[in-house]
């Protein structure tokens, strides 16, 4: 009989125990982050170099927002590649970084929609 939830592993620092992630979780989050990062960078390139029109305050705000989202995605990717991210607590923090980057990206995309529709 297989156990889907591994037993807590002793922490190298002593006191607290940590649970390892089920197999495939880290690969999934890494894939999701890289897909978002690829889209974000491609859109950022389009928005900053190829989109027609003049720069306005709103277009600069969209650019900054998308750049912040890319930064958050890079932090999430860095976190997901660390050995420590195999612990459930660290993985949860990484997921929060990734969700925050997705929300910031969505805000940036909504601003770009507003700029294009004006």
Morphology: elongated
Low-confidence stretches: none
Helix content: 55-70%
Total DSSP E strands: 2
The tally of domains stands at 1
User: If you average the pLDDT, what whole number results?
Assistant: 88
Strand order of the largest sheet: 1-2
Query: In percent terms, what proportion of residues is strand?
Result: 5-15%
Number of helices: 3
Radius of gyration: 19 Å
Distance between the termini: 62 Å
- Structural class label: mainly alpha
Secondary-structure element sequence? Answer: EEHHH
> Mind summarizing the main beta sheet?
2 strands, antiparallel
Question: What would you say this structure looks like, in words?
Answer:
The protein has 118 residues and is mainly α. The chain has helices at residues 25-50, 57-81, 88-117; strands at residues 9-11, 14-18.
Summarize the model shown:
This protein is mainly alpha-helical and 118 residues long.
List keywords for this structure.
118 residues, mainly alpha, two-stranded antiparallel ribbon, 7% strand, elongated
Set out the fold topology.
Layout: E1 9-11, E2 14-18, H1 25-50, H2 57-81, H3 88-117
Antiparallel strand pairs: 1-2
